[in-house]
Design goal:
alpha+beta; 5-stranded antiparallel beta sheet; Jelly Rolls; single chain; 4-stranded antiparallel beta sheet; binds fe (ii) ion
Protein backbone atom coordinates (compact mmCIF):
# COMPACT_ATOMS: atom_id res chain seq x y z
CA UNK A 1 0.00 0.00 0.00
CA UNK A 2 1.50 3.26 -1.08
CA UNK A 3 0.44 6.85 -0.85
CA UNK A 4 -2.91 8.56 -0.91
CA UNK A 5 -3.17 8.49 -4.72
CA UNK A 6 -2.74 4.72 -4.73
CA UNK A 7 -5.37 4.35 -2.02
CA UNK A 8 -7.82 6.45 -4.02
CA UNK A 9 -7.10 4.45 -7.16
CA UNK A 10 -7.76 1.18 -5.32
CA UNK A 11 -10.91 2.61 -3.71
CA UNK A 12 -12.26 3.64 -7.12
CA UNK A 13 -11.65 0.10 -8.37
CA UNK A 14 -13.42 -1.30 -5.28
CA UNK A 15 -16.59 0.60 -6.23
CA UNK A 16 -17.22 -1.88 -9.06
CA UNK A 17 -17.39 -4.81 -6.63
CA UNK A 18 -20.81 -6.40 -6.13
CA UNK A 19 -20.76 -5.09 -2.54
CA UNK A 20 -18.84 -1.83 -2.81
CA UNK A 21 -19.16 -0.99 0.89
CA UNK A 22 -17.66 -4.35 1.86
CA UNK A 23 -14.85 -3.92 -0.66
CA UNK A 24 -14.04 -0.46 0.74
CA UNK A 25 -14.24 -1.89 4.26
CA UNK A 26 -11.67 -4.56 3.35
CA UNK A 27 -9.43 -2.01 1.63
CA UNK A 28 -9.44 0.37 4.59
CA UNK A 29 -8.84 -2.48 7.03
CA UNK A 30 -5.81 -3.50 4.99
CA UNK A 31 -4.64 0.12 4.77
CA UNK A 32 -4.68 0.83 8.49
CA UNK A 33 -2.91 -2.47 9.17
CA UNK A 34 -0.16 -1.66 6.69
CA UNK A 35 1.86 0.77 8.81
CA UNK A 36 2.19 2.28 12.27
CA UNK A 37 0.02 5.39 12.83
CA UNK A 38 2.80 7.95 12.36
CA UNK A 39 3.94 6.33 9.12
CA UNK A 40 0.35 6.06 7.92
CA UNK A 41 -0.13 9.81 8.47
CA UNK A 42 3.06 10.52 6.56
CA UNK A 43 1.88 8.38 3.65
CA UNK A 44 -1.66 9.76 3.57
CA UNK A 45 -1.05 13.41 4.34
CA UNK A 46 2.51 13.94 3.16
CA UNK A 47 5.50 14.61 5.35
CA UNK A 48 4.90 18.30 5.92
CA UNK A 49 1.26 18.02 7.01
CA UNK A 50 2.01 15.01 9.19
CA UNK A 51 4.83 16.82 10.94
CA UNK A 52 2.67 19.86 11.65
CA UNK A 53 0.68 17.52 13.86
CA UNK A 54 3.41 17.50 16.48
CA UNK A 55 1.21 19.19 19.07
CA UNK A 56 -2.49 18.74 19.79
CA UNK A 57 -4.13 19.27 16.40
CA UNK A 58 -7.42 20.97 15.64
CA UNK A 59 -10.31 19.22 14.01
CA UNK A 60 -9.38 18.58 10.43
CA UNK A 61 -10.62 16.92 7.30
CA UNK A 62 -7.93 16.27 4.72
CA UNK A 63 -9.85 15.38 1.57
CA UNK A 64 -8.38 12.55 -0.51
CA UNK A 65 -11.16 12.35 -3.09
CA UNK A 66 -14.34 14.39 -3.63
CA UNK A 67 -16.38 12.88 -6.47
CA UNK A 68 -20.04 12.03 -7.18
CA UNK A 69 -19.63 8.33 -6.34
CA UNK A 70 -16.86 8.40 -3.73
CA UNK A 71 -15.69 10.76 -1.00
CA UNK A 72 -12.73 9.94 1.21
CA UNK A 73 -11.03 12.08 3.82
CA UNK A 74 -8.59 11.75 6.67
CA UNK A 75 -10.19 12.96 9.90
CA UNK A 76 -8.38 14.30 12.94
CA UNK A 77 -10.48 14.57 16.09
CA UNK A 78 -8.85 16.55 18.90
CA UNK A 79 -9.57 15.64 22.54
CA UNK A 80 -13.12 16.68 23.49
CA UNK A 81 -14.33 16.71 19.89
CA UNK A 82 -18.05 16.06 19.49
CA UNK A 83 -20.49 16.60 16.64
CA UNK A 84 -24.25 16.73 16.12
CA UNK A 85 -26.39 13.88 14.78
CA UNK A 86 -26.36 13.66 11.00
CA UNK A 87 -26.93 11.21 8.17
CA UNK A 88 -24.91 10.37 5.05
CA UNK A 89 -27.58 9.12 2.56
CA UNK A 90 -25.22 6.32 1.43
CA UNK A 91 -23.01 3.65 2.93
CA UNK A 92 -20.16 4.90 5.10
CA UNK A 93 -16.95 3.20 6.22
CA UNK A 94 -14.77 4.64 8.99
CA UNK A 95 -11.36 3.15 9.75
CA UNK A 96 -9.94 4.42 13.05
CA UNK A 97 -6.19 3.83 13.19
CA UNK A 98 -5.21 5.77 16.30
CA UNK A 99 -7.38 6.74 19.27
CA UNK A 100 -11.11 6.19 19.16
CA UNK A 101 -14.34 7.51 17.69
CA UNK A 102 -17.31 6.87 19.95
CA UNK A 103 -20.47 6.61 17.85
CA UNK A 104 -24.00 7.10 19.08
CA UNK A 105 -26.63 5.85 16.64
CA UNK A 106 -30.15 7.25 16.42
CA UNK A 107 -33.37 6.30 14.71
CA UNK A 108 -36.27 8.43 13.63
CA UNK A 109 -39.22 8.53 16.02
CA UNK A 110 -42.26 10.81 16.19
CA UNK A 111 -40.80 13.44 13.89
CA UNK A 112 -37.49 13.55 15.76
CA UNK A 113 -34.73 11.07 16.55
CA UNK A 114 -33.88 9.00 19.60
CA UNK A 115 -30.55 7.38 20.54
CA UNK A 116 -30.60 3.61 20.13
CA UNK A 117 -27.05 2.34 20.60
CA UNK A 118 -23.43 3.33 21.04
CA UNK A 119 -20.29 1.89 19.54
CA UNK A 120 -16.76 2.76 20.59
CA UNK A 121 -14.51 2.33 17.59
CA UNK A 122 -11.07 1.91 19.19
CA UNK A 123 -8.09 1.67 16.88
CA UNK A 124 -7.57 -0.42 14.94
CA UNK A 125 -11.26 -0.64 14.06
CA UNK A 126 -13.33 -0.38 10.88
CA UNK A 127 -17.00 0.56 11.18
CA UNK A 128 -19.47 0.17 8.31
CA UNK A 129 -22.76 2.07 8.32
CA UNK A 130 -25.84 1.46 6.22
CA UNK A 131 -27.30 4.25 4.15
CA UNK A 132 -30.10 4.90 6.64
CA UNK A 133 -27.70 5.36 9.58
CA UNK A 134 -27.96 8.50 11.70
CA UNK A 135 -25.11 9.07 14.12
CA UNK A 136 -22.94 11.51 16.04
CA UNK A 137 -19.33 10.99 17.11
CA UNK A 138 -17.04 12.12 19.90
CA UNK A 139 -13.47 11.68 21.09
CA UNK A 140 -13.47 11.08 24.83
CA UNK A 141 -9.70 10.59 24.99
CA UNK A 142 -7.09 13.10 26.07
CA UNK A 143 -5.20 12.43 22.86
CA UNK A 144 -6.20 13.05 19.22
CA UNK A 145 -7.92 10.37 17.19
CA UNK A 146 -7.18 9.69 13.54
CA UNK A 147 -9.27 7.87 10.95
CA UNK A 148 -10.07 7.44 7.30
CA UNK A 149 -13.70 8.11 6.32
CA UNK A 150 -15.25 6.89 3.07
CA UNK A 151 -18.74 7.48 1.62
CA UNK A 152 -20.44 6.24 -1.54
CA UNK A 153 -21.59 9.67 -2.68
CA UNK A 154 -20.55 13.33 -2.92
CA UNK A 155 -20.55 13.70 0.86
CA UNK A 156 -19.86 17.44 0.83
CA UNK A 157 -22.43 18.29 -1.84
CA UNK A 158 -25.52 16.06 -1.58
CA UNK A 159 -28.65 17.01 0.34
CA UNK A 160 -28.47 15.41 3.79
CA UNK A 161 -29.91 16.01 7.24
CA UNK A 162 -28.54 17.16 10.56
CA UNK A 163 -30.31 17.41 13.89
CA UNK A 164 -29.84 20.21 16.41
CA UNK A 165 -27.84 18.75 19.32
CA UNK A 166 -30.21 20.07 22.01
CA UNK A 167 -33.65 20.08 20.36
CA UNK A 168 -33.04 17.16 17.96
CA UNK A 169 -35.01 19.09 15.34
CA UNK A 170 -34.12 18.03 11.78
CA UNK A 171 -32.47 20.61 9.51
CA UNK A 172 -31.20 20.40 5.96
CA UNK A 173 -27.44 19.89 6.11
CA UNK A 174 -25.62 23.24 6.22
CA UNK A 175 -21.88 22.91 6.75
CA UNK A 176 -21.41 26.37 8.28
CA UNK A 177 -24.28 25.90 10.72
CA UNK A 178 -23.18 22.35 11.53
CA UNK A 179 -19.68 23.65 12.27
CA UNK A 180 -21.03 26.35 14.58
CA UNK A 181 -23.17 23.80 16.45
CA UNK A 182 -20.12 21.57 16.91
CA UNK A 183 -17.87 24.39 18.13
CA UNK A 184 -20.58 25.38 20.61
CA UNK A 185 -20.97 21.78 21.83
CA UNK A 186 -17.21 21.48 22.32
CA UNK A 187 -17.04 24.83 24.16
CA UNK A 188 -19.85 23.70 26.48
CA UNK A 189 -18.23 20.30 27.06
CA UNK A 190 -21.28 18.48 25.70
CA UNK A 191 -21.06 14.68 25.77
CA UNK A 192 -23.16 12.35 23.68
CA UNK A 193 -25.80 10.25 25.42
CA UNK A 194 -24.89 7.00 27.10
CA UNK A 195 -26.02 3.82 25.39
CA UNK A 196 -29.80 3.87 25.15
CA UNK A 197 -32.40 1.80 23.41
FE1 LIG B 1 -20.96 10.76 10.04
Amino acid sequence: MGDAATLVERARAALSARDAAQAIHDLLRETIASAAPRELRRRLLGTEAAERMGGIPRFGQHVLVDSPELTMFHATLPPGFVNAPHDHRTWAVVAVYEGEERNVFYRRRDGSITPTSALVASAPCVVAMREDAIHAIENRLETPSYALHAYGNAHFHVARSMWHPDTLVEHPRDDALFGSWCRDMIARGVRLPADAG
